[in-house]
Design goal:
The structure holds two protein chains of two kinds. Chain A is mainly alpha-helical. Helices cover 41% and strands 5% of the residues of chain A. The chains are: A mainly alpha, B mainly alpha.
């Protein structure tokens, strides 16, 4: 058994040592770690937080950022922001969706549950032109498409502590990282200085300020609150089945540990007379000794 | 496939079938009565784990293929569709993606075990070479599977790796164009990678049959590195090896499930969640972790052609291992000097893996070069000479004696 444990530990560290941790080449200030409801073994999304995050997305982010892979129906999916289907349909109806009528003429109709979130710009060129030459990235997978290099030995520990929240930590840090550029910093005319952005010159102007979005649930209307809520919302947008994944994962782990335990004792029993060399050597019947 | 067929069909149908197609006897002699050395340790369970992983990859892969679209405009979104809208699609994809890593982890342990105990030596050379072929096929399959996701890393890894062939003098560029099916990595490239990614696992399965066949002809090596002499030295495959393998597969699945359910994106570069964009080069291009040692070897040599030669040479050299190692003693247990060089080799291989993920500058380049030199020196200088100069420890008379001491002999 000791050997098995050793084998597994070695196996784990072998993967770890050879891992290209998520990385950006240029010097990057590591974002401060936040505590997230969806981190850890029993992590799950906080419905209230996702609803607040969605409000911020709807009122602020979506003016420039698309979220092409999500549909309005996703708002009512289990493990998500927890809207009812009627509420999600009501959200959809607020949007105007480009479509064709029965005679093939272009029309605009209210959105339905099955529609995708409409993009703010008709194409990438338009998005670039309206944003100083840099198209705002699509937000569907943004929280998984961002990260930072953990470096040795932290990336080894991350296997065991299951730290997977580099993306939301990074997004949260960016939203809080706008500062005046230090003297002599060569900031391009369309750039904004951000402590946590690789290279520090980010094209996006500071998107959120205190008081910009009002919440119904009495949460403070502050940047600190906004940045956490919207980062959590983007994590959900990237990984909508996380809650289900972690719940099933725990069940699978219990099953596998019990199964392996039973297999271990079965193995012990089967190998008993082969693994009792001393009894064999002294002429005892190994089947009569205990395992 | 070998061994005494003591198979006695139990029921009427099996008796009828056995006279016409003796498949029952084949399975019985290969997986039931097949004698395995009694002293095999847990490092010998990785063959079973690898067979299990091949099955997992094929089953999840075939189902994923039902939902995937191999087209440059749709591939990324179809993968995201699997993650979002296919029932348990996230599970299938995370099992398949992390399964590839687990497959490679198991194969690396399997290879190092073979090297430590001298499993490649006479009469197991063909068995070993089939293993090297399997490893090569796995690398090709894994690489093409990574490209199918069609994220930024997929696209740029495909560009970098296929470009390696442009180092071939004279015809290099023509070969690269032929591989791409165009003048850049594009839709034809994605389509052929998809086709081959579906084909190669079946080729792997075929070579696995040959690998197991060769294994069952020569019999398994064992930690003592001596051949079984009597039935006291062996136990039947079933139940002894089957239950031991099952236990270890269970343990391996715990590690596997940890990755799938809790850290599914740990081994993924974040850039691969950005759709492929030929107009934007990522700030760094790194391959999957299991190629990193070879990537480090490639980059440690300043000349492109020589670097590519070293890259392919570092894998090809494995096939010659049975003849490069001149020692007649198999197991490192009885080779005190070899053991030290072996562990240094492990350090060099893992070290190269770490260096492959680092930018090629400063001390990283120097370290890569030192490890690369040792990697080749291990095969070309250390192993041939050790066999001549090393004073090995006395071998036990039999496997039973090695387990039980002199009393058991």
């Amino acid at each position: 058994m000791k050997r098995t444990i050793l084998a597994l530990v070695l196996a784990g560290s072998a993967v770890a040592l050879a891992v290209p941790a998520s990385a950006q080449v240029s010097e990057q200030v590591p974002p401060p770690r936040q505590s997230w409801s969806f981190a850890g073994l029993f992590g799950k999304y906080d419905e209230g937080q996702l609803q607040r995050g969605f409000k911020i997305y709807k009122e602020v982010c979506s003016n420039c950022h698309s979220m092409n892979l999500l549909s309005f129906r996703n708002l009512a999916d289990p493990g998500g922001p927890g809207y009812t289907e009627a509420q999600a349909a009501a959200v959809a109806a607020e949007y105007k969706i480009k479509d064709l009528d029965d005679s093939g003429q272009p029309i605009e109709r209210p959105g339905r549950l099955a529609d995708h979130f409409p993009a703010p710009f008709p194409n990438e060129a338009a998005a670039k032109a309206a944003n100083g030459g840099t198209a705002p990235p699509d937000m569907s997978t943004l929280a998984k498409a961002r990260g930072y290099q953990r470096g040795f030995p932290w990336f080894v520990f991350d296997i065991f502590t299951q730290y997977q929240e580099q993306g939301p930590d990074y997004i949260h840090a960016i939203l809080n990282g706008y500062k005046d550029a230090p003297k002599g910093f060569p900031l391009p005319p369309t750039g904004h200085y951000n402590e946590y952005f690789p290279g520090h010159a980010i094209a996006m102007p500071p998107p959120l300020q205190d008081g910009q979005v009002q919440f119904d649930d009495g949460s403070p209307a502050t940047l600190a609150q906004y940045s956490k809520d919207v980062a959590a919302f983007l994590m959900w947008a990237s990984e909508p089945h996380l809650t289900q994944r972690k719940r099933i994962g725990f069940q699978v782990m219990i099953f596998l540990i019990v199964l392996s335990g039973l297999l271990f004792f079965t193995k012990k029993k089967v190998w008993h007379d082969v693994e009792k060399p001393d009894e064999l050597a002294s002429g005892q019947d190994p089947a009569k000794t205990s395992i | 496939m070998s061994g005494s067929s003591t198979y006695q069909p139990q029921n009427g149908f099996m008796k009828w079938l056995e006279r016409r197609l003796p498949i029952g006897g084949l399975i019985h002699s290969s997986f039931v009565a097949y004698p395995t050395p009694r002293n095999l340790n847990y490092w010998w369970t990785f063959g079973g784990i690898l067979s299990f992983m091949l099955g997992v990859q094929m089953i999840t892969g075939i189902i994923l293929a039902m939902h995937y679209t191999p087209h440059v405009d749709m591939a990324f979104n179809s993968v995201e569709g699997i993650m979002r809208d296919v029932n348990y699609g996230w599970l299938l994809r995370y099992v398949h993606a992390n399964g590839a890593s687990m497959f490679f982890l198991a194969v690396y342990i399997h290879i190092f075990r073979g090297m430590y105990y001298g499993s490649y030596k006479e009469p197991r050379e063909v068995l070993w070479i089939l293993g090297v072929i399997l490893y090569l096929l796995m690398m090709a399959t894994g690489f093409m599977g990574y490209v199918l996701v069609w994220g930024q890393m997929s696209f740029w890894a495909a560009t970098v790796i296929t470009n390696l062939f442009s180092a071939i003098p004279g015809v290099g560029d023509a070969i690269v164009t032929w591989l791409w099916g165009g003048y850049a990595v594009g839709n034809p490239t994605l389509n052929r990678f998809y086709s081959l990614h579906y084909l190669l696992p079946f080729v792997i399965a075929g070579v696995v049959v040959l690998h197991v066949w060769a294994l069952h002809v020569s019999g398994q090596n064992n930690p003592a590195g001596i051949e079984p002499k009597s039935s006291k030295d062996t136990v039947p495959f079933t139940p002894y090896a089957t239950v031991k393998d099952s236990f270890m597969i269970g343990c391996f699945c715990i590690l596997f499930a940890w990755f799938v359910f809790y850290i599914p994106n740990y081994l993924v570069h974040p850039d691969n969640y950005i759709p492929a964009n030929p107009a934007v080069t990522p700030s760094e291009i790194v391959p999957e972790w299991y190629y990193l040692p070879f990537y480090a070897i490639l980059r440690s040599i300043p000349n492109k052609l020589l670097g590519v030669c070293a890259l392919f040479g570092s894998i090809a050299i494995l096939a010659f291992l049975p003849w490069l190692d001149t020692s007649r003693v198999r197991s490192a247990r009885y080779r005190p000097l070899y053991r030290q060089f072996f562990w240094l080799f492990v350090v060099a291989a893992v070290g190269l893996g770490w260096l492959g993920s680092k930018p090629p500058e400063g001390v990283y380049v120097i370290l890569s070069r030192i490890f690369t030199v040792y990697y080749f020196a291990y095969f070309l200088i250390v192993l041939p000479l050790l066999g001549i100069f090393e004073k090995t420890k006395p071998l036990p008379n039999s496997i039973s004696e090695s387990v039980l001491g002199p009393r058991g002999a």
